[in-house]
Amino acid sequence: MIKIDGSFGEGGGQILRSSLSLSMLTKQSFEINNIRSGRSKPGLLRQHLTAVKAATQISNAKVEGDYIGSTTLKFFPQEIVSGKYEFKIGSAGSCMLVLQTVLPVLMLQESKSEIYLEGGTHNPMAPPFDFLDKTFLPILKKMGVDVNMKLLRPGFYPAGGGQVLVEINPCKTLNSVNIDSFGEINSIKPRVLFSNLPHQVVRRELSTIRKKLNLSFDDRDCTIETNALGPGNIVELEVETDQFNQCFYGFAFKGKKAELVAQNCIDQVKDYIACKAPVGEYLCDQLIIPMMYAKGHLLCSPLSMHSKTNIEVVKKFVDAKIVVEELNEQHTLLRFL
Amino acid sequence: MKKKVSIGFLGTTLDKGQNPHRWEKWRPTIDLHSFDDLVFDRFELLYDQRYSKLCDVIYKDVQQISPETLVNKHLLPIASPWDFEDVFSTLYDFSKAYPFDPDNEEYYFHITTGTHVVQICLFLLTESRNLPGTLIQVHPNWKRGKMVSEPSYSIIDLDLSKYDPLISRFHKQSIEATSFLKSGIETKNKAFNNLIDEIEKVSIYSKHPLLLMGPTGAGKSLLAKRIFELKKKRHKVSGELVQINCATIRSDTASSTLFGHKRGSFTGAITDRVGLIKAAHKGILFLDEISELGLQEQAMLLHALEEKTFYPLGSDKQESSDFQIIAGTNIDLEHLVSLGLFRKDLLARINMWTFQLPGLVDRKEDISANINFELDQFEKSENRRVTFNKEAINKYLKFALSKQATWKASFRDLNSSIIRMATLAQNSRINTQNVEQEIQRLIKSWNPANHNNLLSTLLTKDQLEKIDLFDQLQLQSILKVCSQCDSLAQAGKELFAVTRNSKSTNNDSDRIRKYLAKFGLNWKQIKDVY
Question: Which of A181-185, A318-322, B76-80, B269-273 is predicted with the least confidence, judged by mean pLDDT?
Fold first, then answer.
């Protein structure tokens, strides 16, 4: 049985989620100890448990230690079953993190799957729906996997209640993917998603973007008022290059100034453009497991703790050859052989 | 793993909100189900009909925010959530009706919502284990009017020792009540303390008859009075305390005293009279020495107790009275029933709660506390604080605890004994001499026929040995007469009643004084003893 030290590296939920995906993909059981041991509330929290339960469901796994506060978990996956699934995430936790756990598994099966998710869709500590939809899925498509995501209703913290439908058309053998040059920036598109908030908030965010990035656009083209159950607001900047589209986000919460929400997003875009590494920090993170099967190489910004941890976890499960080449202070080349 | 079950009231104020912005508000019931390290498998949402609309919102919101939780709505009608009795009894009934399964489930009672009365009742029921679980509360983290971080929760497991001070604070109220019944006397006698605890519970919660049994002077009337005052304090009675010693109404007027009469119903019934039973309406009727009640009155009383109605003498109009009865007796009523002197059915009716009050002899460890109580009472009535000196109290206690002290009239004896010593005490200080004299008085009162002891009391053994039996017997009789007289002159008149009439002058007092002097005795000595 594969043993994972949960306190290693990033030391949080990411190790657990990656381990679950890899365990199912490689059909190897694992035991993880010291789950989130350095955190203020150690052990499994609600959202982690939801991921464990989702993984258990799609792989008919046997589990030990699947309760809140548990610092040890044993996971024995059986046969993966594609099909229709419904996962509801409590306390407006991110649907996307649960999807992130099961998607790499279901996309490598023989038959289609359809997942209905309910919970948070635009959470600050997780990739938002739009990131997966616009940045991540197109790359999967290049690998040969056709995934369609539909946002039926966004879910913002704290009300949650977002609804997402994901259709996975799997592919047994993936095409290799190489993203190694930044290319030309064709456009930067701002978009603001909001619910149950005054329009003034949106105007302030867009005017900040207009000023700081020197863009010209019509507010009406960039404004999407949604039917979320509670109030919520997110700013998106989509950087379109020759290669692909990379999205960045600014998350609003009660008490945070609209200008600051926009500014957070603008800063990320400026860093991205200055760095000129096509695969940004968050995307790299998401791609490590799929790339292990697709092969190829990615030109990334310096690896985040999340990515480094992911690579280590991958190495525990598979004898994968992942070469990390730090080209310079701003560029790292990841080669999956 | 046991299932986690939350049980809480709909917060009619705190949980309020219909529009989307309710999500920006602090809503305890929602927050209780939003924690990332606490998930409930089931939530029992208690609500009142008036708030069913809000209940539906919360019902849906909890399901949305906590898909892991099965939510059950419970209609729990409480007329006034600020009324202790209403809330307590409703929750108590809930605790009896709900299918608790502590072997497989853990229960958390949410106290953030609901009135403070609800909170207190939840506390009391959890503390008494009627509700098997722990309390939980949710609190927002505010700073300068803004919520600075997400709400947190605390679990209050009353079984943990750190909550002892809190529990003892709640117990204080009950201690105050028991102490109240004991007139604030710190009694040590275990049986008596248990009895008082029981009486406290019964008197607060029960409207049934109470039967206080115990020897004369054990404090039955005082206790009855205290029970009434306690019930009055707790708003359990609105009427008055009506008390009567049945021995004082043994005549023909007994039924009229109890039930009242119509004008002209018998000779001397000049006006209508309201009986004691009517006067005790919504209050307490204390019938001391109930065994003294005639059989006819017993039957009438039984009817009044059972039907809450009765007929005044000579009236054909039924009267009603809803009263609680406290009966006192120093005689074994069972025995009287077997002799046919007391109605069996009435006894069955009034001995729903029977309390045997121990007499002073059986509560010797409480004598000390009761002496202090009596001194306090004396101070209150006489405005004078009297104390014992150390030797005196030791001497008195030694005697009070000895076999010699039979305390025939129980606490009544102690009461008069202390009053006598306090009255006689010089400079408000009871000394050994006061105590010695009091001891003689008590012995005498408990052994009234035994005047032989008089000689040995007044004369030493040596002195007695020098007196012929002939003289001893005469002296004994003379002393007995003296002891019953107020003055030497009166004793003279009594002892020389025959000869004094035929004499021109009488010096009877002098003759007695001289007679006593022959044995080394004087009048004052005799009076000191009696």
Answer: B269-273
pLDDT tier, B173 (very low <50, low <70, confident <90, very high otherwise): low
SS3 A164: strand
Helices (H), chain A: 13-26, 46-59, 95-106, 129-131, 137-143, 199-213, 258-275, 281-294, 305-317
Which pLDDT tens digit goes with each residue over B69-99? Answer: 999 999 998 888 888 778 888 888 888 889 9
Question: Predicted confidence band at B334 (pLDDT cuts at 50, 70, 90)?
Answer: confident
The class level of CATH for B173-356 reads alpha beta
* A157 neighbors A232 (Cβ within 8 angstroms): yes
Q: Which fold has domain A1-80?
A: Translation Initiation Factor IF3 (3.30.110)
Residue-wise burial string across B483-508, b where 16 or more C-beta atoms lie within 10 A, e elsewhere: eebeebeebbeebbeeeeeeeeebeb
Task: Answer yes or no: are the C-beta atoms of A9 and A304 closer than 8 Å.
Answer: no
Please say whether the beta carbons of B478 and B495 come within 8 A: yes
* CATH assignment of B3-165, among 3.90.930.12, 3.40.50.10770, 3.90.190.20, 3.60.20.10: 3.40.50.10770
**How many Å apart are CA B524 and CA B437, to the nearest integer?**
12
A42 part of contact set with chain B, CB < 8 Å: no
Q: Quick one: angle between helices B190-205 and B164-181, nearest 10?
A: 90
Size of interface A-B (CB pairs under 8 A): 68
Other CB atoms closer than 10 Å to residue B226's CB: what's the count?
21
What residues form DSSP beta bridges with B510?
none
Contacts of B33 in chain A (CB under 8 A): 90-91
Average pLDDT, chain A: 94
Domain residue limits, chain B? 3-165, 173-356, 360-446, 455-529
Query: CA A119 to CA A158: how far, in whole Å?
Result: 10
What's the CATH number for B360-446?
A: 1.10.8
**Ranges of each domain in chain A:** 1-80, 82-175, 185-275, 277-337
Rounded Cα distance, B183 and B181, in Å? 5
Residue B399, pLDDT above cutoff 60: yes
**Which architecture, in CATH terms, is A277-337?**
2-Layer Sandwich (3.30)
Residue B274 pLDDT: 83
What percentage of chain A has pLDDT greater than the value 70? 100
- CA A103 vs. chain centroid, Å, equals 11
Tokens of residue B464, six digits: 């007695």
> Do B3-165 and B173-356 fold alike per CATH?
yes
- pLDDT tens by residue, A302-330: 999 989 999 999 999 998 889 999 999 88
Question: Residues B177-191: pLDDT tens digits?
Answer: 666 666 666 677 777
- Chain centroid, CA B346 distance in Å: 23
Chain-chain contact of B37 with A46 (C-beta, under 8 angstroms)? yes
Give the distance from residue B9's alpha carbon to the nearest chain A alpha carbon, in angstroms: 20
Beta pairing partners, A116: A86, A165
CATH 3.40.718.10 assigned to domain A185-275? The reply is no
Q: Out of A89, A93, A230, whose CB is closest to B23?
A: A230
In the prediction, which pLDDT does B373 show?
A: 87
- Reported ipTM: the value is 0.89
A331 noted as active-site residue: no
